[in-house]
Design goal:
Layout (H helix, E strand, L loop, with lengths): L1 E6 L10 E6 L2 E6 L7 E6 L4 E6 L3 E6 L14 E3 L1 E8 L4 E2 L9 H10 L7 E13 L8 E11 L2 E11 L5
Antiparallel strand pairs: 1-4, 2-3, 3-6, 4-5, 5-9, 6-8, 7-10, 8-10, 10-11, 11-12
């Protein structure tokens, strides 16, 4: 099994549905459960492409000055001062069709086994670098970031790089 993509839509590195606290020049966001919280993982196997979704994302994000914390906020492209840690419970993930409808309970059992749960109850992502590639073109448009970090899946940790489209929302 090969994981190809981690899509943090609606989670947007925990900015969406998160609460913030400020200390000095840094702002910290912590995950806050909500009805719109969702993570989607997509991948490929020797049989077919697959996707799973889950409603639970835990963790925190701490950003320095210059990071866009409000919708449509001006930001300068380049490396951002940021740290983040994300945890996704494996048992919260369910297999889905491309249209978002449930796939099958049997596929869920296979997936949990392939993710070696137990003992690896979580998928963990530790952000090591975030670079703003493109600012939002409108208040509701996404910022485009390149994220680098360590992704731990099924007991194996690998370096990972992914282009993210992040929509900043105020709740």
């Amino acid at each position: 099994m090969k994981i190809r993509t981690l899509i943090a839509t609606n989670a947007a590195l925990l900015l969406v549905l998160a609460f913030a606290s400020q200390a000095a020049d840094k702002t910290q966001f912590r995950a806050k459960p909500g009805k719109d919280m969702k993570v989607r993982l997509e991948g490929t196997s020797t049989v077919h492409d697959w996707q799973v979704e889950g409603p639970i994302i835990g963790g925190s994000l701490e950003v320095g000055p210059g990071f866009p914390t409000e919708p449509g906020m001006a930001a300068t492209p380049g490396k951002m001062e940021v740290t983040a840690d994300v945890r996704i419970p494996v048992n919260s993930l369910k297999s889905i069709e491309k249209d978002g409808k449930p796939y099958s309970d049997k596929m869920d059992e296979i997936m949990i086994g392939k993710l070696k749960c137990p003992p690896n109850r979580f998928i963990i992502f530790h952000l090591t670098e975030l670079t703003l590639k493109e600012t939002a073109k409108a208040k509701d448009a996404p910022y485009v970031f390149e994220a680098k970090g360590e992704l731990a899946v099924a007991g194996t940790t690998n370096s990972h790089m992914k282009l993210l489209r992040m929509v900043i929302k105020k709740f």
